[in-house]
Amino acid sequence: MFTTKLARLQGTLPLDLFAAIEDLKTELNAVILAHYYQDPDIQDIADFIGDSLQLARAAAQTNADVIVFAGVHFMAETAKILNPDKLVLLPDLNAGCSLADSCPPDQFAAFKAAHPDHLVISYINCSAEIKAMSDIICTSSNAVKIVQQIPKEQPIIFAPDRNLGRYVMQQTGRDMLLWQGSCVVHETFSERKIVELKTTHPEAEAIAHPECETSVLRHASYIGSTAALLNYCQKSPSHEFIVATEPGIIHQMQKLAPGKHFIPAPPENNCNCNECPFMRLNTLEKLYLAMKNRTPEITMSEDIRLAALKPMQRMLEMSV
């Protein structure tokens, strides 16, 4: 905070960042795409807010010359895969993903080679290299729908999230070979503390993202992607919710259902571990500087991009 104030005093940052960003959007013909887990200021300045599937569709459809992706690295990579001729900016290149990092390309290549008869369905929360080794990409919004379209006799590898894969298996009755990756945020929620919250808030509905552990999901009255959770809380007659996903989504929940109360599901320890440290690396200041300086830019080899594009296109076709 002190560094930001000093930068403003020294003239490197404008006093009104919102207005400056709007001016740069016009100058660059830029669009800002933001995930629900971003800070409220970034959500409020974004042209489009969504979950991974919604953001992939928005990236595929934009007419902008510059895409500023307020999210994490794999999301910006996805935008570049779909838009090779556009400048794709990520406010902080260190905004990675623990789930994507849990699936190293060399190890996954060996895993895939050991099961050559398997179709590979990869959760979009993975690197471009993993996408390039996949047959179909999915998101938490469409994973069940996509798996249901695969012939039952076709064996499937599901990567990289074991919790989402386990949930999809339960919903579809399919036996899949799971890569043992996970998200540090969604694995940190405390079943014990959620039970305590349900005791002290007996009218509250627990809702959860399928990346959570089974022990957490069994206490949820509704399980869905970030977008699905947002839609559900608007339609549900309940007035109070315990939300087991990254708490950045609560900003949109409060805006769209202002008369309702949202309680972030707590981690086991007394920490902010339920907040994604990678998502929170992006700030309004970094977003402005990325647009002003046209960097950091997302790049990749054309071979990787083309290989990753095919399973992305299959996902978009299968999730209509």
Which secondary structure elements does this structure contain, and how are they paired or packed?
Elements: H1 2-9, H2 17-28, E1 30-35, H3 40-45, E2 48-50, H4 52-61, E3 66-70, H5 73-82, E4 87-89, H6 98-101, H7 105-113, E5 119-123, H8 128-132, E6 136-138, H9 143-148, E7 156-159, H10 162-172, E8 177-178, H11 191-200, E9 205-208, H12 214-217, E10 222-223, H13 226-235, E11 240-244, H14 249-256, E12 261-264, H15 284-293, H16 302-318
Parallel strand pairs: 1-2, 1-3, 3-4, 5-6, 5-7, 7-8, 9-10, 9-11, 11-12
Cofactor: [4Fe-4S] cluster
Binding site for [4Fe-4S] cluster: 97, 183, 276
Binding site for iminosuccinate: 35, 52, 123-125, 140, 209-211, 226
Brief characterization of the structure:
The chain starts with a helix and ends with a helix. It is built from 16 helices and twelve strands. The chain has helices at 2-9, 17-28, 40-45, 52-61, 73-82, 98-101, 105-113, 128-132, 143-148, 162-172, 191-200, 214-217, 226-235, 249-256, 284-293, 302-318; strands at residues 30-35, 48-50, 66-70, 87-89, 119-123, 136-138, 156-159, 177-178, 205-208, 222-223, 240-244, 261-264.
Question: What are the main properties of this structure?
Answer:
single chain; 320 residues; alpha/beta; 44% helix; four-stranded parallel sheet
